[in-house]
Amino acid sequence: MNFFRMSIRHKIIMAFLLFIAAGTFLWALFYYRQYTLQKKICLLEAKSDLLNTILEARRYEKNFFLYKKEEDLKETIIYIDSAYDQLETILHKYGRYAYAKDLDSFKKKLSQYRTELSGLMSLYKNGRLNIKRLSRIDLDAKQALIRDLGRNITAHVEEMLNNEKIITERLLETMSNYHLIALVGIILISTIFVIFLMTSVLRPLKLIEDAIHKIRVGDYQHIPHIKTGDEFESLALSVNKMIKELDKRNQQLIQTEKMASLGTLTAGVAHELNNPLNNIYTSLQILLEELEEGDLEYQRSLLTETERQVERARDIIKALLEFSRERIFELKETNLSKLISKSISLIKPEIPPEVKVTVNVPEDLVVKIDANKIQQVLINLLMNAILAMNGKGVLSIEADSIDENRFFIKVSDTGIGIPKENLSKIFDPFFTTWERSTGSGLGLSVSKDIIQKHGGTIEVESKTGKGTTFTIILPKGDWK
Amino acid sequence: MNGLENKKILVVEDEELSRVNLERTLRKEGYEVIGVENGLKAIELLKKEKFDVILTDLKMELADGMKVLEVTKELQPETQVIIITGYATVESAVKAMKQGAYYYIAKPFRLDVIREIVKEALLRKIVMTGSHAS
To answer: Cα Rg for chain B, rounded, in angstroms?
Structure first.
């Protein structure tokens, strides 16, 4: 099973199991080491007892050779027997842990030592040493042999004890090394676990959080594909599906709102068409009536004028059709001045005679925007401004660069204004105060969506009875 | 001749071609015709000159047809006002007639209808004032 394709749940369970396994292993290792150490200390004590017994035996041996007393010899043999028993006990009890080098030769030496002592013992009769049976020289040779053996035994035991000490010290040393290795290991495993949490849990969570935050400000961008093979991958897929759906709904909402304002515009535009139509109609009637009179110059100029009126009618219909068409969001280089003129021409029929319209936009300002969507916003703001002025006032549209990267559009009216308590609500969907409005109540909410989708902001300033100003700030283009 | 020659007619229309066409048509009928392109100019003119019939567009910048009608009724009550509009609705027609307009014509119109209505309006003015005053 590939670890990287497992679910988060499985990964976390795996990580914990690994932790528990490593912990158990370390605990067992330390327990075993401590047990060994304990055994070693007991062994050291036992071996040191053995050494003492042998030293005791040797003391009696020395006394014996000095005073030739049978009791001393007896004591020596008792101690040697005792030492033999102790050795047996050590081997039996700590066999696995005991350092035992040349044990057989030691045992041999010990039994030889005892045999020699027993040999001397047999020379005693009624508490006295029967010298006759042994020449003086022989006794000296015996004495030298026994002393040599005794020294040998002592040295052997001392060496055993020393080695045992060295081994114990080494054991203590490795114990502290093991502690260090275990500490490094635990830090390493913890770090890996933290890194795993960061990359497998926190990073995808952050990506999803970022995407949701973007949606909130109107940017319906997909979460970058997460290929973890776990819950996050399926969560990201679900969130992406949701974003797609939300984007679609949002597009539909924008289009619905556009259709609502188009309803208002269409009536005005249809009426507006009657003007060029009337120009054409009356011109044609005159031409027909005066056909016979043959004033060719006049007839040509009238026909030319008629042609221009047909073009005018075509442009009006084109503007309306262009506005109504449902388009996907697309940024294109747009002349802002022309776009504003087109928007004004569409709402022209709605402008009452006593509303003055002033436009202050540099003719060469070209920006990268979705012209159709920005036009929707402009028409919205213009219609609101006209409604707010109740047939009289000044409607001004201003636009210009702010700096290299940004520009602004300002739509101001001298209308009734928006009460303070409503200012925060005007961008909410379905909030409207127009009693005679044919609008959907979605105008400003959709406008805000469109501006945010461009990465811009829309703000409102208003004074009751004085008027309202909407300020849009947008990036000039080439943003992502 | 029907005795309506030299009657003074004011044409108020911001659509230049329509205005010029109306002027030409009415001049051919023998009337004295003056054309202006907005309501304000018409009102200025009304203060100085008397007209027999006024043909005015309804929707214009500065001052609209209703304003022209209102001023005409105030300054020259006997003058007949014919409203022409591309924005014809029942409401605006009723409002115009209530304010004393003689007729309400929707764009696009036949020139014959204009000739007919202007003639009727002139005759009505004669009936109303009882003389050929101009």
So the answer is: 13
Q: What is the distance of C-alpha A243 from the center of its chain? A: 21
The string of pLDDT tens digits covering residues A222-248 is 777 777 677 778 888 888 888 888 888
Per residue in B25-63, pLDDT (tens digit) is 999 999 999 999 989 999 999 999 999 999 999 888 778
Closest chain B CA to residue A350: B59
- Is-contact B125 B79, C-beta < 8 A? yes
Residues of A within 8 A of B21 (CB-CB) are 279, 282-283, 286
Distances from the Cα of B25 to the Cαs of B19, B30, B118, in angstroms? 10, 9, 11
B45 contact A CB<8A: no
Inter-chain touch A274–B15, beta carbons under 8 Å: no
What residue of B is the nearest CA neighbor of A288?
B111
Q: What is the pTM (predicted TM-score) of this model?
A: 0.59
Closest chain A CA to residue B38? A353
CB < 8 Å from A in window 56-115 of B: 59-64, 67, 86-88, 106-111
CB contact under 8 A, B18 and A271: no
- Cβ contact B108–A354 (<8 Å): no
| Amino acid A127: pLDDT | 64
Residue B79 has pLDDT above 70, yes or no: yes
User: How many A-B residue pairs are in contact by the CB < 8 A criterion?
Assistant: 63
Over the stretch A295-306, which tens digit does the pLDDT of each residue have?
899 999 999 999
CB contact under 8 Å between A349 and B67, yes or no, is no
Partners of residue A289 in chain B, C-beta under 8 Å: 111
